[in-house]
Fold this protein.
Amino acid sequence: MEARNAVVLLSGGLDSATVLAIAKDEGYRTFALSFQYGQRHAAELAAARHLATSSGVAGHVVADIDLRIFGGSALTADIEVPKGAALDAEDEIPVTYVPARNTIFLAYALAYAETVGASDVFIGVNALDYSGYPDCRPEFLDAFTRLANLATKAAVEGQHLTIHAPLIELTKAQIVQRGTALGVDYGQTVSCYDADAAGRACGECDACRLRRKGFVEAGIADPTAYRTPPG
Amino acid sequence: MEARNAVVLLSGGLDSATVLAIAKDEGYRTFALSFQYGQRHAAELAAARHLATSSGVAGHVVADIDLRIFGGSALTADIEVPKGAALDAEDEIPVTYVPARNTIFLAYALAYAETVGASDVFIGVNALDYSGYPDCRPEFLDAFTRLANLATKAAVEGQHLTIHAPLIELTKAQIVQRGTALGVDYGQTVSCYDADAAGRACGECDACRLRRKGFVEAGIADPTAYRTPPG
């Protein structure tokens, strides 16, 4: 039987590297999609390229989009990335929120899927760790699926699109365990909002704290390269 | 009472120029959004800039996105734009179809709307002339509205987003009549898929034929600059 094609959103972080491994493990022929969007963490994109190559994807597109034209987020604008405190306020929307980011990412994924004849899109959103982001919720993904199945020539012609979010209900520790079982080399991934050019993590931002906590709780050695050893 | 903000998708063509005039007529403070997407018709974008300025919009963002990375359409790739025949096959999806284009455009509009606090987005889609495009149908717009109202921080905080498609059921002649009544200078707009650098239309592509037919049926003089007078 011929493998089905799937588009995998690949940021180069821990979550999307795990999702890519899951899609491959499920037998899909994978097409990775990454974004250069004026983010501070260009090291993450270098990690995405490395992961795509080492995973043997069938295609990898890096879409160059500039979300800075709209302003408004720590991940793209020149405002300070919070260290520490923000994680505790779980019900609030983090300052690192980017307006409509996952909507834009999935819209591009839809275009890529139609172009390569993919019936499936994989995205590494997580509703537990990122409860504050409206576009990481299951109801958002359901609404996008409904939209996608009305939006394209492929849909009109009967090609149903399915969006997979295999991490959506997992803790970071469970994600690390799942990926480790699938052979993901997390030393290749970059999660830090403030990584240096070599991809070394700050160890202090929300993303670093979440990631480190995941390895600790999973009981798996943390392969992350830190600029200074975490305390 | 303070004017409400609206984002208006502005291509520089006849339809979107009419939509901008409608939004202004309805009292909105308008923010125009255009796309540079590797399209052959860069003259249309120059027209968009001109229209935005002369209409006195409160803001104008030109998003530089490259849909050529995915390939697959006459409007962005190097395949021949059809002359003449395609218009007659109303039930087929035209070769000028761009995968997920309106999904991507509306995703950007959603980001812009959230950034400027707009509760309304205007788009010039038309279900009559472009019946072959899946993402010009009312059910597509309904699905996007539902998505938008789950996708953003603004939505979570109670700011409902409405998508307006005031042309959706109008014929080209009705659009021309409506815009003319609102003072739109259609000589400033470019619809041709194959306009030259000065914005002069070929007179032969589908967009030119539809546009010309609209002026004829509306009984309004066609101000379009053609490279050669239409037969």
Q: What stands out?
A: The two ends of chain A are 51 Å apart (CA to CA). The helical segments of chain A are 14-25, 42-55, 101-116, 138-151, 153-156, 172-181, 206-218.
